[in-house]
Design goal:
single chain, mainly alpha, Growth Hormone, Chain: A, 10 helices
């Protein structure tokens, strides 16, 4: 992590990377928030069960519990943020692929477990993306990071929500989810542009796990 005095002026490429990262994390989020309720309703699922989709956001409420672990444990060859960005995005793509190949035909329990898997890794990814955005930009450029975040989330909501819903209507569940998985996989190209390896002095200054909550 660079100190503010060491940070270089923000570039269009850096902002584009942040936009794509937030787009990637918004895709599954808005799939469950926008597309999934409508799809389930079209299949005759009871409204009470559809309302239970809100429970998938439990990991988001408690992600602060493992946020210190995301900060402290990573592969040094990749960097603190890029390690978790690779891991979480790969897990999200895998989860979406499983949903594409199973759906509700293999039972509600499997659907719920896979959905929780996706939600948990999306919440974990949010930790890494927020951390990278703050650390990679000088304090005076944080407003640009906020703008990039808004653009990425807006695009992710359109593709993950309305886009997948439209595809479901046209080509069906499996093709729509495979398209979502492919788009999620493509966003990993942005992760390849992330370089946040910590200098030695920053590595030595990491706070302890317990101290994080003080």
């Amino acid at each position: 992590m660079q100190r503010p005095s060491e940070q270089v002026p923000v570039t269009r490429l850096a902002l584009a990377v942040i936009v794509v990262l937030y787009l990637a994390h918004a895709l599954p989020l808005y799939f469950f928030n926008v597309a999934m309720p409508a799809i389930l309703r079209s299949q005759g699922v009871d409204l009470r069960w559809i309302g239970m989709l809100s429970l998938l956001y439990i990991p988001w409420a408690f992600k602060f519990l493992w946020a210190p672990l995301v900060d402290r444990h990573y592969l040094h060859s990749l960097g603190r943020r890029r390690t978790w960005l690779w891991l979480t995005q790969a897990a999200l793509v895998a989860g979406i692929l499983v949903l594409a190949l199973t759906g509700l035909e293999h039972g509600l329990l499997l659907f719920v477990l896979v959905s929780l898997w996706i939600s948990t890794f999306a919440a974990t990814q949010d930790i890494a993306i927020d951390g990278y955005t703050v650390e990679s930009l000088a304090s005076e450029d944080h407003r640009l990071g906020s703008m990039a975040q808004s653009i990425g989330v807006a695009l992710g909501s359109m593709f993950g929500g309305a886009g997948v819903l439209w595809l479901y209507q046209v080509v069906g569940w499996q093709s729509a989810l495979l398209t979502l998985a492919s788009l999620s996989a493509l966003t990993m190209l942005a992760v390849a542009r992330v370089d946040d390896r910590l200098p030695a002095q920053a590595e030595a200054a990491k706070p302890g796990f317990i101290a994080t909550f003080k």
